[in-house]
Amino acid sequence: MTDAQRSTVASDTIPIIRVQHLVRTFGNVTAVNDVSFDVRKGETFAFLGPNGAGKTTTIKMLTTVLRPTSGTLELDGMNPVTQSTEVRKRFGVVFQDPSLDSELTAWENVEIHGVLYHVPREVRRERGETLLKLFELWDRRNDLVKTFSGGMRRRLEIARGLLHTPKVLFLDEPTQGLDPQSRNQMWTIVKSLNATESVTVFLTTHYMDEADRVADRIAVIDHGRIVATGSSAELKQQTGTDSLEAAFLKLTGETIRDEAFSAEDRMRQVSRVWRR
Amino acid sequence: MGVIYVLWQREVKKYLRSRAQIIASLGQPLMYLAVLGFGLGAVFRRAGEGSYLQFMAPGVIGMTVLFTAMFSGIAMLWDRQFGFLKETLVAPVPRVQIMLGKTLGGATVAVMQGLLVFVVTLLAGFRPTSVMAVPVAFLLIALIAFVFSALATAIGSSLKEMAGFQMVMNFLVMPLWFLSGALYPLQGLPAVLAVLTRIDPLTYGIDGVRGTMIGTTHFGIGWDVGVLVAVGIVFVAAGAWQFSKLEV
User: Fold this and answer.
1) How far is A89 from chain B (nearest CA, A)?
2) Among the residues of A42-179, which ranges form H helices?
3) Boundaries of domain holding B124
4) How would you classify the pairing of strands A225-230 and A217-222?
5) What is the pLDDT of residues B216-243, one digit of tens each?
6) Residue A95 is nearest to which of B6, B7, B86, comparing CB atoms?
């Protein structure tokens, strides 16, 4: 598909996620600063940005665990702030930090999830089996999660997040700390589900090759602001560069975040601690 | 209902799987029974109070229930640290169901642990007045377990760090236990201590268990149950409220 075709196809689909003028502050630190974007039904949308850019904060607001300071959010026409239960039925999420119970087996984790999302017993069993087989965990379903490797845990979290057939799957830096084989395998499965079940995938990453490979559209976010949105090709074109990496560096600057903005990052961290 | 059940089951399963922990947690009650039970027994008898083991066994069972219930609620810190809490918080179910599942699970685990310690006290020579007294006593024990499991959920929801856990153990759980009259009779206490013991809900729990198991009670079983139920309602409300405010 050429980019022109892609954008005509996309323009007549309704957005499943709508974010307008979203702001979130922690004390006097603005983590998300007037962010607006749409995610189209069925696409794979990536938030690409350096550490502390506001990716996770945005996901937290979309997934109802954090309230925005101002701005509007919409997921499948629902408001995550006022209609949180309805919104929660519609998405699956894999947070940056693991959220499995490692003292339970893989299957027990899946079962609990199914009950929490009111998935009927029969469906739980069938879909649970399908997903675990797909993610190559079926043989290990009765093992305690604490015996699993990082890659297996991540796959289990994704499988679990898909059990209730969500319309949107949020993946917050899902490949963090995984080896290339695991990353590759994970994306192959996720992309195939994206195609077969037309689940919209919203991911955050700071791996450019990953965004380049899996995302239909990419929003580059930096210092809480979206600096560019478009397909990988469009971003390259906009910046007059020949690789997404060059485009990214051009858009976000070459400063190394952890050094140049350590004071600010520290503030974010401090405010994160005090907020809770 | 399904949600409450599955979260209750999670707590119970994890308890039954942690055999080493179950055994380890018998250490403290055993120590109290052996060291205090036999060490202070002679003094107690000389003071005309009868068998100290008979007197303190209900107290040691109460202690176990208190510690286990508080611990399971505070284990929410682990859930927070290791993430499972988030899984429940983004689920499309009312928070109060999650809170109740956890609280009932913690209470059930505490009762099971109490049962285990009860068997240990029997082996040590403790004799309830009748066999029929035991099930009735366990209804009271279940009530104690529920009250403190609810309190623990309320506290666990507001704790952020491991340091907080130590605070709770030192400044809440230990005083609750030492002020409960588990180790000493409630009559003839200095005024300050008398007031403090009457503020401690565990006092009524242990008094009730003593009333049912060995037939001596300070407040009367009806009053004990009344206080526990009232406090339980307050703690559940506090837990539900704290839980509803949780953000990740």
Assistant:
1) 6
2) 55-62, 84-90, 106-116, 121-134, 150-162
3) 2-244
4) antiparallel
5) 899 999 999 999 999 999 999 999 998 8
6) B86
ipTM value greater than 0.90 = no
Spatial distance between the Cα atoms of A50 and A37, rounded to a whole number of angstroms: 18
Quick one: closest CA in A to B5, which residue? Answer: A115
Q: What is the pLDDT of residues A218-267, one digit of tens each?
A: 999 998 999 999 998 888 888 888 888 888 888 887 666 544 444 555 55
Question: What's the count of helices (H) and strands (E) in chain B, helices before strands?
Answer: 15, 0
CA nearest to B6 within chain A? A112
Instruction: Give whole-number Cα distances, B42 to A3, A225, B46, B53, B93, in Å.
Output: 91, 75, 6, 10, 56
Residue B248 and residue A89: Cβ atoms within 8 Å?
no
Superfamily of domain A3-275: P-loop containing nucleotide triphosphate hydrolases (3.40.50.300)
Q: Which helix (H) or strand (E) holds A205?
A: strand A200-205
What CA–CA distances, in Å, run from B179 to A21, B197, B235?
56, 5, 19
Q: CB-CB: which of B14, B91, B248 is closest to A116?
A: B91
Q: Domain count for chain B, please give it.
A: 1
Interatomic CA distance for residues A159 and A124, integer angstroms:
12
Hey, of B17, B90, B109, B243, which one would you mutate to test binding to chain A, going by the most A CBs within 10 A of its CB?
Answer: B90
The sign of the dihedral angle between the CA atoms of A189, A192, A194, A197 is negative
